[in-house]
Amino acid sequence: MDIQLDRLLAAYCAPALIGIKPANLVACDRALVPDLPRKLRIYREAFTARGVRFEIVCACETRYLLLVYHVQSLTRQMCDPRVRRLLSRFGYPDTDGLDASLYHLKRRMAQNDGFPHEIGLFLGYPVEDVEGFIEKGGRGCKLTGHWKVYGDAEAASKQFERLSRVSRAVTRRVERGESLLEVFAA
Q: Which tens digits make up the pLDDT trace of 70-90?
């Protein structure tokens, strides 16, 4: 396993690795994590039994955008009728199939000049927060944390603390010298 990549994944993807969030997205600088596609083979093998996948959803000259997701949680998220309705506004296929939705997300990322904000649905953000962000262009939110909140600020605040606590705990262990595989060993 790669120490730089372990640190990056610990800091930004621990909630998805643990399974308390459907997915996390992390930007990987090509200079800091050279040859990411090859290195991901090791992580994919190590985390398959935990139901976690690693997928490059976008790549440019300077970085990769890596989606780390818990298959069961993200599949459940994508089956929510409110999520399906919102995704259909952006041309996503009317299917519960996770692979089809991820394929469409990658296409939207490659074709868009801006960032497709519906990605918040993949990351487990509440539907009302994603809708609010899209409709208000990121302005007028009630709270800002791991995402901008337009719905239940109290529930979001508790979730932000939980996500931060998990990320800090995993990051501390990696900083002490454990690999992600050791941290998540059964």
A: 999 999 999 999 999 999 999
